Input
Amino acid sequence: MKGLKKQRRIQVIAVAALALILSTALVGYAMRDGINFFRSPSQVVEAPPGPTETFRIGGLVQDGSLRRGQGETITFAVTDGAAAVDVAYRGVLPDLFGEGEGMVGTGRYVDGIFQATEILAKHDESYMPAEVIDALKEQGVYQEPNAALPTN
Output
C-alpha cells in the first residue's frame, strides 16, 4: 500500500513538472513577437539588425532632417549625438513630434532605413523615455533638466 502511494506521488509530481514546462514553452512562443528590444542609433549603426527583426529605436529628431510632403511618407533622422539613423514613417505623427525632440519608434531596419510602424513622442516639456535618456547619457549628449522649481 505504501509503495502505491509513493508511486502515485511521483506520477503527480512528474505530470505537474511536465505541465509547467509545457505552459512556459507556450507562453514564450506566444510572446516571441511581442517583445521589442530597444536600441540607440549608435547600436544600430555598429551592429545592424536583420530586416525581419522588429525593435525600438530612440533618440532626438535631428535638426533639419524632417521632410514632409513626399506622398504619405515622412522621413527624418534620429540621433543620439554619436550616430544618426534615417527613419521613414507612413501615418500621422504625434502632435508633440518635432526636430530636436525626443522620440521612440518601433519597426524594422531595412536597406539602411528604419521603417517605422509606430512613432511615440514625449508627452510634455520635461518627459523623455528612460531608454532614450540612458542612450544619450552614454554618448555624453544628455543634460539633466533643472529639477529645482522656484517656490513662492
Observations:
- The mean pLDDT is 81.
- The first helix runs from residue 2 to 30.
- Residues 69 and 111 are 22 Å apart (CA to CA).
- The beta strands are 37-39, 55-61, 67-70, 73-79, 84-90, 102-110, 113-121.
